[in-house]
Write a structure and sequence with these properties.
Belongs to the Mrp/NBP35 ATP-binding proteins family. By secondary structure, this protein is an alpha/beta fold. The chain has helices at about 5-10, 50-60, 110-120, 140, 170-175, 185-195, 215-225, 240-255, 285-290, 305-310, 315-320, 325-340, 365-380, and strands at about 30-35, 35-45, 65-75, 95-100, 125-130, 150-155, 155, 160, 165-170, 205-210, 230-235, 260-270, 275, 295-300. The strands form three sheets. Strands 4, 5, 8, 9, 10, 11, 12, 13 and 14 form a nine-stranded mixed β-sheet that branches. Bound molecules: adenosine-5'-diphosphate and magnesium ion.
Length: about 400
């Protein structure tokens, strides 16, 4: 066969999804023949593997007597700027998102967020805090920015800044003391807006102070951006640890790598007599960390200076950097940074928890069933009907 005959045969190969042939499209760039050996060079416009696979099946059918070698030149797949392998990322300018969670309220989640965020900023990172605790947005007070006006540029709000950390909170967007009854859908919308409609700069780390528990807010966040690490804050008594287990289980279910546990209110040193009492117990988190194959990032005692720092908007890590407590926060921040640095930039995927139904399509409807089957087929490599072909 000569090159002209080969081209004639290739006119019968349609470009997948189109009525024109690969010759009509001009995708066949070069053909080399030597006896029965033929090499064909194709330039195609699709990055899709399916398109290449189909052409690899169809071309030999029209040239059955040749030993074919096919070379495909395809456009490079666009590299995502985010650290998400796939799935949504509505805030790609933020390199790492750290979710600060607790099983219950009042254990020191916001206190930890504030001091850890400042400690990481003091170690040279560009840091932000998003206060997503819509039920108790305490970050503005703890960072000393409550009552400050938010600047609006176009239709986006600029974060406030204190102690080198960018801050945005539901607390500064709602009227002080205003109570809002949040339903699931509203929480989801609020969290997404706090990521999308705030002018977050390029950040190394954004800490998110979550509402307590394991609910809609956590799921929405993990479905909207790739969360690089989860921190669990707990007090050491067993009643609190039970709730922490739920929070650590949630990280696993949402495919969030666990950075570690902060054991807060761990022991109390009496300022008068200097004796230590373990009011909420002490050291129990080490076992929990082992159980979940993670680490204790730090143990912080009950200390009046921590509470005072929170109430006055003067966080201890910034105002008393020489204190033992500040040093513990600095060490916890160091451990967190090491954990984040050890992650490959693109090994965080939230693909597994992305919703597969488009908005408005019920999973039980015939269309929904079809989408579900196609999704499963993609995952398993079979036809998705459960017939066992894979
Ligand atoms: N280690 C600590 N020592 C003393 N007070 C603390 C400590 N951790 C937190 N607090 C105080 O306890 C209260 C609850 O802490 P907070 O961070 O608001 O908890 P959460 O965000 O989990 O509800 C705050 O008044 C805070 O200042
Ligand atoms: Mg709080």
């Amino acid at each position: 066969m000569n090159i002209e005959n080969i081209k004639k045969s290739l006119e019968n190969v349609k470009y997948p999804g189109f009525s024109k042939s690969i010759i009509d499209f001009g995708f066949v760039k070069d053909i080399k023949v030597e006896d029965k050996n033929c090499t064909i060079y194709l330039d195609i416009t699709s990055t899709s593997k399916e398109v290449e696979d189909e052409l690899r099946r169809e071309i030999p059918k029209v040239l059955p007597n040749l030993n074919l070698i096919l070379f495909f030149n395809k456009p490079k797949e666009e590299v995502q700027k985010s650290n998400s392998v796939s799935g949504q990322n509505i805030a790609p300018q933020i390199k790492k998102i750290v979710m600060v969670s607790s099983g219950k309220g009042g254990v020191g989640k916001s206190t930890t967020t504030v001091n850890l965020a400042i400690a990481t900023a003091m170690q040279g990172k560009k840091v932000g805090i998003l206060d997503a605790d819509i039920y108790g947005p305490n970050i503005p007070r703890m960072m000393g920015v409550n009552g400050k006006e938010v600047e609006v540029v176009g239709n986006k709000a600029k974060p406030l800044n204190a102690y080198g950390v960018d801050i945005m909170s539901m607390g500064v967007l709602m009227k002080e003391g205003e109570a809002v009854i949040w339903r699931g859908a509203m929480i989801m919308k609020a969290i997404q807006q706090l990521l999308r409609d705030i002018l977050w700069e390029e950040l190394d780390i954004l800490f998110i102070d979550m509402p307590p528990g394991t609910g809609d807010a956590q799921l929405t966040l993990a479905q909207s951006v790739p969360v690089s690490a989860g921190i669990n804050v707990t007090t050491p008594q067993h009643v609190a640890l039970d709730d922490s287990r739920r929070s650590l289980d949630m990280f696993q279910k949402l495919h969030i790598p666990t950075a570690g546990i902060i054991e807060n209110m761990s022991g109390f040193i009496c300022p008068n007599c200097n004796t230590e009492s373990d009011i909420f117990d002490k050291g129990t988190c080490e076992e929990l960390a082992k159980e979940y194959k993670t680490q204790v990032l730090g143990s912080l005692p009950i200390e009046p200076a921590i509470r005072r720092g929170g109430d006055s908007g003067k966080p201890i890590v910034y105002f008393e950097p020489e204190s033992i407590t500040a040093k513990r926060y600095m060490m916890a921040a160091e451990k967190l940074i090491a954990m984040l640095d050890s992650q490959e930039s693109n090994d965080i995927s939230n693909e597994a928890i992305q919703p597969i139904m488009p908005a408005g399509v019920s999973a039980c409807s015939p269309e929904g069933q079809k989408i579900k089957a196609e999704h499963q087929a993609k995952k398993s490599g079979g036809c998705g009907t459960g017939c066992g072909c894979k």
